[in-house]
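FORM 7B - TANDEM STRUCTURE REPORT

SECTION 1: FIRST PROTEIN
SEQUENCE AND TOKENS:
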Amino acid sequence: MAEFLKLPEASEEPGGCSVSHQEAAARASKVLAEGGLVIFPTESFYGLGVDPFNREAVRRLFDAKGRAPEKPVLLLIPSADSIRLYCKDVPSDALRLMEAFWPGPLTIVFHATDKVLPELTAGTGKIGLRLSASSFARLLCSAFGEAVTGTSANYSMEPPCSKAMAAYLSLRGRVDLVVDGGDTPGGSASTVVDVTESPPRLLRHGLVKEEEIIKVLEEENYRSLHGKLKKGPAYRPHQRASGQEEGDNACPQLSET
């Protein structure tokens, strides 16, 4: 049976121990350090966090989600300064996007460092990174002292969850800790842009609009294909298919919290 913690903004329904954000982050970071699985709120849906450098914990994440090994898993990072721990290089396009949209719902795909497990990149050598707009998600990463996985807390091919209990039930209870932060905003998933190519490749529409990204790149004379981002071969319209989960496979390169 998983442990339940309730943040101050959670509903007053019975069940779970009420704690502060700091107490919840400290407890969650301990569970992560022990190889556990943690459900936690993000700026869109509930996320499923594990220690991304613990191979057994990553295996448990894939098992809990029923996730195919060819689907990569993005990482939420504790700060923009920590990015070079997880990616080999930070192109100028990426720096401008980070300055404009982080913290926020923009996942940027980089060449992964050797520190990143190949299971997380699905063998592509690329990793999606995001500095979350969720204050609790950032606090959790800071308390843990490392990146945390940011895939959505739901069973594969089921819809993402904006309620903690719904996430717990979707994962069939196969987690160690649930941090209930009340209803999350839901809506769209994060936008995904691959900066390993020039011009950058738009992999998925999301909360950050394509027009906003183009404007940032154009303002710095980084015009992409006459003002259009290069769109990946698996590019799909903004509307997600029924059951597509946050952070999942809108494209083979990166399937985020």
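SECTION 2: SECOND PROTEIN
SEQUENCE AND TOKENS:
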Amino acid sequence: MSIANTICKVTLINATCHRYTFQSKKVLEYVQSHTIGRTLNLFAGKTIIKKGEYRVDTDTSMPLIDSHEGAENFLTYNTELFDTIIFDPPWNARKAREKYEGRFYGKYQRMKEDIVNTLKPGGRVISAGYKISYFGKKRGFTQENLLVVNPGGDINPFFVSVEVMNCR
């Protein structure tokens, strides 16, 4: 049996669920406290995480969107590097129906490679969903912080993960 040589700080909060993940004040404040430098917000939705962030969303009704081509298309042609990338895709088919008129974004594995290539060395990915880690050691990431959000009642908890890219 091996013991992990890295300790991840885990924070547990009680917060209500919202249609858009970062509409919860507690969750938003957590993400803001871990966002550094030039920030790319994929699947941006309604909530502005950081003034000056680059926002990508297919929904034309969302505020201050810089690219309406969608995350996958944006990552394909983007040549800019970012210090922080916020990755909050629809977590399941229900969320996809609610937020993206049924279009479920299921090509995350390929998108992850493009995200890695869009991140500056030492940069971080902040991701939200029902999984604890999206990027992991195989891609050169270390889990630094983890927020466990307990919405209460019959709703399952979800996670906000902060992973830092190890310098290559």
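SECTION 3: OBSERVATIONS ON SECOND PROTEIN
Residues 141 and 165 are 4 Å apart (CA to CA).
The radius of gyration is 15 Å.

SECTION 4: SIGNATURE
Preparer initials: ____
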